Amino acid sequence: MIVGVPKEIKDNEYRVSMTPDGVHQLVEAGHTVLVETGAGEGSYFSDEDFAETGAKIASVDEVWTQANMVIKVKEPLPAEYAYLRPDLVLFTYLHLAADEKLTKDMAGSGVTGIAYETVELPNGTLPLLTPMSEVAGRMSIQIGAQYMERHEGGRGKLLGGIPGVRPANVVVIGGGVVGTHAAQMALGLGAQVTLMDINLDRLRFLSEVLHGNFTTWASSPLSIARAVRRADLVIGAVLVKGAKAPKLVTRDMVSQMKPGSVVVDVAVDQGGCIETSHPTTHSDPIFFVDGVLHYCVANMPGAVPRTSTYGLSNATLPYVSKLANLGLKEAVSKDKSLALGVNTYQGKITYQAVAEAFDMEYHQLSIINEQ
Asked: What is the mean pLDDT of residues 286-310?
């Protein structure tokens, strides 16, 4: 199989979808890997690094048009839509439920779109989303601490306080991977942390494993309103698998927050869990609503690409190898987890939450039963 690795073109996106080690593994298995010129520079992988492990360095047109499967980090942008075609497999983060135009363009092109974020193991975990959720959760606290500084527009509070001065009050909404790593980081810096979730078993578990100034709250509209009102930093860490995030923090709740408080909505790539959120970029990351600073960058891990590229490639490479070695049909037929990642196929929406987001027709994936 010919596998293509294009350069990411999203604003300040420095990750690359494959490391030279990954290229070596695919080449050793008999596949051809086309890497776009400069694709790895943002993560400090040179063209020479890729060439030494067997990659062929190519132009953007060659990567997209010659490859049978294109491996990316982020969803295709409008400039890349023309490359989508029925005989192409695209394997990347898609987050289609938050982007109607992309969803319809992918369906219209006939491309097979496999979303990292909906590959799901039998135990319900999301192995290809987890490493970037870990990065984003940890980053959310260091970013929140930065923007709490007065010269950045924040309230001017030190996250951990000092002896005799109270620490900042951090509220984390969502107890999944993002929320857990955010809470760990905030507790490590000495903050007062309240984590909210609807899953009581998850709250029991986290109360046992996390220590420090830590409180768990059962999530409800009223409890969220109370917690947000007294927060210095709110981390939005809600995930509904493959679907648009629910707006748990309303505009009215934001209006009651203290001036200079900070919101980091990590769920913004799935539409955001805070009503006042909208996606921003690394080059223009913040905005204010009712005096509250919002940081809503949709590709947060792109700011630490060396760590993120290794973490992502470690998780995706086994699935990339399976698709390359077996082909699309056999790979998804043998691996139900991978089959759940297929969001578009032959012009059809094959992931129910995406279809429901835009009132489109949902089709069960038919490739498994095709002769």
From this structure: 96
For residues 250 and 193, state if they share a domain: yes
* 329 vs 361: CA distance, rounded Å: 22
SS3 4: strand
Pair 103, 174 in one domain: no
Q: Are residues 228 and 182 in the same domain?
A: yes
Confidence of residue 371 (pLDDT cuts 50, 70, 90): very low
Q: Residues 268, 218, 193, CA angle at the centre, nearest 5°?
A: 70
Angle 298-299-303 (CA atoms, 0-180°, nearest 5)? Answer: 135
Q: What distances in angstroms separate CA 355 from CA 56, 84, 126, 135, 243, one per listed residue?
A: 38, 20, 20, 29, 9
Contact criterion met (CB below 8 Å) for 187 and 210: yes
Radius of gyration of the chain (CA): 21
270: three-class secondary structure by DSSP: helix
Work out the pLDDT band at 254, boundaries 50, 70, 90. Answer: very high
Confidence of residue 238 (pLDDT cuts 50, 70, 90): very high
Bridge partners of residue 115, in order along the sequence = 92
Predicted confidence (pLDDT) per residue in 88-147, tens digit: 999 999 999 889 999 999 999 999 999 999 999 999 999 999 999 999 999 999 999 999
Residue 125 lies inside a defined structural domain of this protein: no
Tokens encoding 64: 């997209």
Assign 3-class secondary structure to 140-178.
HHHHHHHHCCHHHCCCCCCCCCECCECCCEEEEECCCHH
Are 110 and 189 found together in one domain? no
Domain coverage including residue 97: 2-119+305-369
First to last CA, the chain: 21
Mean pLDDT, rounded, for 177-189: 97
Query: How many domains in the chain?
Result: 2
Provide the 8-state DSSP code for 290.
Answer: T
158 and 229 inside one domain = yes
**Any idea which residues carry the catalytic annotation?**
95, 269
Same domain membership, residue 216 and residue 316: no
